[in-house]
Design goal:
64% of the residues lie in helices and 8% in strands. It is mainly α. Strands 1-2 form a two-stranded antiparallel ribbon. Strands 3-4 form a two-stranded antiparallel sheet. α1 (41-85) runs antiparallel to α2 (88-120). The structure holds zinc ion (2 copies). The site of one zinc ion has 7 residues, from loops.
């Protein structure tokens, strides 16, 4: 690819906003992407911020899901604790809670692995 301004120069990259080819003199490197010098720095910075914010909100939401699932484990442990002394019914209910928690945990791990690879690719 050649620079869109300088037909004689090879492009070293593409603007993340307009996808034009840029040579060394026309490029601004913003760390996470290249921009047309003096033209699209702000736009590319916005794109980068959007991507970063998305990645951040995914990782915080994954944490909150794992924490909100923890009450299932707690209830399960509590019921098993009382069930051992009191009744088999409580014991079964507690075991069910823990099984359900494990299923949710595995499901969430698979889901967030998939989201993570979607962000990174
Ligand atoms: Zn551009
Ligand atoms: Zn150029």
């Amino acid at each position: 690819m050649k620079c869109f301004k300088h037909n004689e120069s090879d492009a070293i990259g593409q603007c993340k906003h307009c996808y034009k080819g840029l040579c060394k003199e026309c490029v601004t490197d913003l760390g996470h992407g290249l921009a047309c010098k003096g033209m699209h720095e702000a736009e590319v910075a916005n794109i980068n911020n959007l991507i970063l914010n998305n990645a951040k909100s995914y990782s915080t939401s994954s944490k909150s899901v794992f924490i909100s699932n923890l009450y299932l484990l707690l209830i399960g442990v509590l019921f098993i604790w009382f069930g051992i002394k009191e009744s088999k019914f409580l014991l079964a209910f507690g075991a069910l809670c823990i099984v359900f928690w494990l299923v949710l945990l595995v499901y969430n791990i698979i889901l967030f692995r998939k989201l993570k690879t979607d962000i990174e690719t």
